Automatic annotation (TrEMBL):
Keywords: Coiled coil, Membrane, Transmembrane, Transmembrane helix. Pfam families: AAA_27. The keyword Coiled coil applies. It comes from Paenibacillus alvei. Residues 471-498 are annotated as: Disordered. It comes from the Bacteria. This is SMC domain-containing protein. Residues 203-251, 326-367, 410-437, 889-930 form a coiled coil.
Length: 1105
């Protein structure tokens, strides 16, 4: 089984991240996740566990990597099993709802939905989540747990690893033993069972002491019996007295009510018995009908008055039909008044616009020239003007640019020439001052030839001294002339008798001296000092090699003298060369040494060379100053030449500008344009022509608009005049008719009618043709609206009059129906008049009221009970009056007070005796002690049961471990020893677990056994990993589950780290190993041991959950 790919939809800091872990056709191998802290490596290991066994619940102890932004929590994982089937596990959670999908695609392509139990059985070999984490999910935290254990517990922890446990089994056994010790120990005191037994002993002692008070208890029982008998008699007497008192009090309270009851009952018996039960109802109907009849008659009278008033208001309200027919035309013209006003304003604006356009045309033409007219401006041929102006403007810009560039270049060249001349003068003065001062201010200023001779002589002397230093055996490397002369003289005296012994050495050093002299001559004559130096160095190297070979060859005793002679002869040649070069250099430096007051013969080689170097440095600085003077002089010549060229260019540019102006003025004359116009002015003239064209078009449009508006205004005035004349004629005619009607009706209709027609006549006198036309139009509209209001009022009066007639008729019919109903009521009641009906109804109601009072008094007297129960009170009411009943109540109350005092006294004595009896009874019987003893016995049973369960669990755990030790531990230990030997480079060869002991040991190659409490941290972790790997191999037949290792190699040294990596590579043949690390050296080591490792580099997440 290997994991192909994981898709983290939302898990920790990952959002929609897809990470391919292996390829489908590859072997198991190792997948390495490498990245810094907070890159999400451990998060991926937890994600794989959650995909296999489900997302943790909200209340689970496991960490939930829920994203903080509210995204989907979960993801998808693809796994390939041994048979080639691909499993897709998808688990995600959103808004509290959990989605789980497990699908299996077989090698033949068959898709099957699988449950979680089938996943664990088929793919994971029956491993549950806990077993997977303890065997195949190894983390750094788990390894660090080894350091929290004591030395004697490390062995037990490693031992329990072989039982698929780890620290869990060790802690379980420890917890079982601690729980058993907390419950019971044979001689303990603080254990729960021991404390319970001690409490039960104390309770039994207290119970035995309580049985001594049994005699006193019987005496108290007899006293209580006598008191209870007397108390019962008093209570019975009090009950009887209370009943008597109740009867007397009730009789006293109802005495007045009893008297009213007797009187009311006698009056009820005197009432007539022939009254009908329907009389009140008939009387009520009679009153209602009488009231309705009166209301109906009043309504009829009111309606008659309204009919007369409406008829009076309708007289003289006839509408003016001829004038109302003019309403539509009048309203149409009135609605056009705003439009007509707008037309007038628009006509005025059009006229103003025409005047403004004409003024704008004159303004545009006068901008070209004061003598131009709009006709001249509009007649201009601007189609060719614009192109000609653009060409002229380009020529003018080019000329101005050339002149500006020439003037700027001229200014710049003049400034450069002045600056170069100034710098040249400064450099020339500096050279003169430098040559006048000489070397180091001595006044000695050699020319170039003398300076070159001094430099060559110094170089020759330096070469000769270097050769002499290489051949001399003395400690003083730089010789003086006197020392060279003395040593040469002494060697000549020593070697004079035996010159034949140094022939070979003389030849070698003579060869070297000849090469040096040849190089010096080449440098002196050809001035090739670099080549001369190379030749000298090659010659000296060859001389040194030959001298070394000659010195290494074993000379005969007879040749030793010859060797010494040759060596001294070569040194004589070198000393002579040094003297020659030193003398030559001294001659060249004689003027400088004389100027500095130094002794010429006493000057040594070092001082001569130092003086020559000072002269060389001075000469190089002078050459630098001379070179700067030459450079500045050339710059002055160049800038002067450039000034002359720029002056010529400026003159040519001015001539070209004059020619351009002549051509422009000639074109203006040809086109009859003002001479003052520039190319920009011509372009402005073209723009003004375009503006004039637009203004001309605006002027034409404004004139057309003005004419159209004037025509519309004239047509409106004609319609208004016609309408007003017609309306005025109709109003005048109607006014005359109204005047005639008023004259005729003044004698017939009365004052009111005459007044109405007088108002109408005043309204008809309105003059429509006086004033403005629109004013007359609106006066006509107002008159039409008044006539419409009169017409509307007339129609409403007609409708109102009709409705009043209908309602008056209905009221008369309703009054007739009411009268018939009232006659029927009198007939049914058997009376002749309504007054007689109402009197009999009142008599019936009074009888009913008496019956009601009798019932209420009986209810007060009997209180809802039977009449027989009231007989004792009736006897009291008949026997005693009210004052006697009150005295009887007082007497009975005093007797009851005496009984109550005696009862309270007896109850107090009884209570005290009962308390004493209960105390003695508790001491004798010990009920509370029995209950406490029973409670302690129940607690003891529960504790003993728990102790038995813990002991049984410990026994079962020990039997399970013993069975595992006997059956499966040997094979696991053998594979663990193999891995331990591999990871320790053969230091440990066996893993030992003594039978029946919870400890582990390692055997070395020399047979020495190392117990677990002597393990180092790294060794303990290696043993832990070896046992885990061995257990995983033992389960390979059930399932090849991937290993998920979270940074477990951090505590290994370099050697054992490499061996552990090799062990993991061997394990990856049968298991897919997925590791995480943040250490680059671990990555480099794994890549070196397994080049085909799949490396996934991760970056630090922007969001860390």
């Amino acid at each position: 089984m290997k994991i192909l790919q994981i898709h983290l939809m939302g898990y920790g800091g990952f959002r929609d991240a897809v990470i391919p872990l292996t390829e489908r056709g590859s072997n198991m191998g190792i997948t390495l996740l490498y990245g810094p802290n907070e890159a999400g490596k451990s998060t991926i290991t937890y994600f794989i566990r959650d995909m296999m066994y489900g997302l943790p619940k909200r209340r689970s102890s496991h960490t939930r990597y829920v994203p903080s932004e509210g995204a989907v929590y979960g993801g998808r994982m693809s796994v390939l099993d041994r048979g080639g089937a691909e499993w897709t596990i998808e688990r995600w959670e959103r808004d509290g709802s959990l989605h789980t999908s497990i699908r299996k695609v077989s090698a033949t392509g068959v898709l099957t939905d699988v449950s979680q139990s089938q996943l664990e059985d088929e793919l994971l070999g029956g491993l549950n989540a806990g077993l997977f984490c303890r065997l195949f999910g190894i983390t750094l935290d788990e390894l660090q747990e080894l350091q929290t254990l004591h030395d004697d517990e490390v062995g037990a922890y490693l031992y329990d690893t072989g039982l698929y446990g780890g620290r869990g089994i060790t802690e379980a056994e420890r917890w079982l033993q601690q729980s058993m010790d907390g419950l019971f120990r044979p001689r303990g005191r603080n254990q729960l069972i021991n404390q319970t037994l001690h409490t039960m002993d104390k309770l039994e002692r207290v119970q035995r002491e309580a049985h001594r008070h049994a005699g006193k208890l019987s005496e108290l029982e007899e006293q209580l019996t006598l008191i209870e008998l007397e108390l019962n008699e008093c209570v019975e007497q009090r009950v009887v007295q209370r009943e008597e008192l109740a009867k007397a009090e009730r009789a006293s309270g109802v005495a007045d009510t009893w008297i009213r009851y007797i009187a009311t009952k006698q009056e009820l018996d005197e009432q007539p018995t022939d009254l009908s039960i329907r009389l009140p109802e008939l009387a009520a109907q009679w009153r209602e009908l009488d009231r309705n009849l009166a209301d109906t008659e009043a309504a009829c009278r009111g309606m008659e008055e309204k009919r007369q008033a409406v008829a009076a208001r309708m007289k003289g309200k006839e509408p003016f039909k001829q004038l109302l027919d003019l309403e539509s035309e009048t309203r149409r013209l009135a609605q056009l008044t705003d439009t007509v006003q707008h037309w007038r304003e628009a006509a005025g604006e059009a006229e103003v616009e025409c005047n403004a356009a004409e003024a704008e045309l004159w303004r545009l033409s006068r901008q070209t020239d004061s003598s131009w007219t709009p006709e001249m401006l509009l007649a201009s041929k601007t189609s060719s003007y614009l192109e000609q102006a653009q060409l002229a403007e380009k020529r003018a810009d080019a000329c101005r640019l050339a002149i500006a560039q020439s003037e700027a270049g001229m200014e710049h060249a003049v400034r450069e020439a002045e600056l170069a001349a100034k710098e040249y003068d400064d450099a020339k003065m500096q050279l003169e001052r430098y040559e006048a001062a000489g070397v180091n201010g001595s006044g000695f200023a050699p020319n170039e030839g003398s300076a070159a001779d001094i430099a060559r002589a110094d170089q020759s002397l330096a070469d000769a001294v270097r050769v002499w230093d290489a051949s001399s055996d003395s400690k003083e490397r730089v010789p003086t002339p006197e020392r060279v002369h003395n040593e040469s003289y002494s060697r000549r005296n020593r070697n004079a008798p035996r010159p034949q012994k140094f022939t070979h050495s003389r030849i070698i050093y003579g060869f070297g001296l000849g090469v040096v002299l040849l190089a010096a001559a080449l440098g002196w004559i050809a001035q090739q000092w670099l080549m001369a130096l190379v030749i000298a160095l090659v010659g000296l190297a060859a001389t040194a090699v030959m001298a070394y070979v000659s010195s290494q060859s074993p000379p005969h005793s007879s040749d030793k003298a010859d060797v010494m002679a040759r060596s001294e002869s070569a040194q004589d040649g070198l000393e002579h060369a040094i003297r020659v070069h030193a003398e030559a250099l001294r001659q060249l430096l004689q003027p400088y040494l004389s100027s500095t007051a130094r002794s010429i013969p006493d000057a040594g080689i070092d001082e001569l060379r130092r003086t020559a170097q000072e002269v060389g440095a001075w000469h190089r600085e002078r050459l630098h100053v001379q070179e700067r003077c030459r450079s500045l002089y050339e710059t002055v010549i160049v800038t002067e030449r450039r000034c002359r060229l720029l002056t010529a260019e400026l003159d040519a540019a001015h001539k070209k500008e004059e020619g351009r102006l002549r051509d422009w003025h000639a074109w203006l004359d040809q086109e009859n344009l003002p001479e003052r116009l520039t190319p920009v002015g011509v372009k402005e003239h073209c723009r003004r022509w375009e503006q004039a064209e637009e203004v001309e078009q605006q002027l034409h449009r404004a004139a057309v608009k003005h004419a159209r508006l004037l025509g519309q205004l004239e047509l409106f005035e004609q319609d208004c005049n016609s309408l007003l004349h017609t309306a005025q004629h109709l109003i005048t005619t109607r006014s005359q008719q109204v005047m005639k009607a008023n004259d005729i009706g003044s004698g017939e209709e009365g004052t009111e009618t005459v007044f109405h027609y007088g108002v109408a006549a005043a309204d008809d006198g309105v003059e429509l043709l006086s004033g403005s036309m629109i004013g007359g139009l609106f006066r006509l509209l107002e008159r039409i609206e008044r006539e419409q209001a009169i017409e509307q009022e007339y129609q409403q009066l007609l409708l109102h009059s009709s409705s009043l007639d209908d309602e008056w008729k209905e009221k008369h019919i309703h009054a007739s129906q009411i009268q018939e109903t009232m006659n029927k009521l009198l007939l049914e009641a058997g009376v002749n008049t309504g007054f007689e009906l109402l009197h009999r109804a009142d008599a019936y109601n009074y009888k009913l009221e008496l019956e009601r009072q009798v019932r209420e008094l009986e209810a007060v007297l009997y209180r809802g009970g039977e009449r027989t129960a009231f007989r004792p009170m009736e006897e009291l009411l008949i026997q005693y009056d009210g004052r006697e009943l009150e005295q009887r109540c007082i007497s009975i109350a005093r007797q009851m007070e005496q009984l109550d005092a005696r009862i309270r006294e007896l109850e107090g004595r009884k209570g005290r005796l009962e308390q004493e009896r209960e105390r003695l009874k508790q001491e004798v019987e010990g009920a509370s002690h029995h209950q406490e003893i029973a409670l302690q016995e129940s607690k003891l049973d529960e504790q003993a049961s728990r102790y038995a369960v813990l002991a049984l669990a410990k026994t079962l755990m020990q039997r399970t471990r013993r069975l595992y030790e006997e059956e499966k531990q040997p094979a696991v230990l053998k594979r663990a020893a193999h891995y331990m030997e591999q990871m320790s480079a053969g230091r440990y060869t066996r893993v030992l677990i003594p039978f029946g002991e919870k400890t582990i040991a390692l055997a070395r190659q020399d047979g020495q056994v190392v117990w677990s409490h002597h393990f180092s941290r790294g060794t303990a972790e290696q043993v832990y990993l070896a046992i885990r790997f061995a257990l995983a191999e033992a389960l390979t037949n059930r399932a090849s589950v991937p290993f998920v290792l979270d940074d477990i190699l951090v505590n290994f040294d370099q050697e054992r780290l490499g061996l552990a990596v090799k062990a993991l590579i061997a394990l990856s043949d049968s298991h897919h190993v997925m590791m995480t690390t943040c250490h680059p050296h671990v990555v480099d080591l794994i890549k070196r041991e397994l080049p085909e490792v799949r490396l996934i580099e991760m970056q630090r997440l922007a969001y860390s959950s």
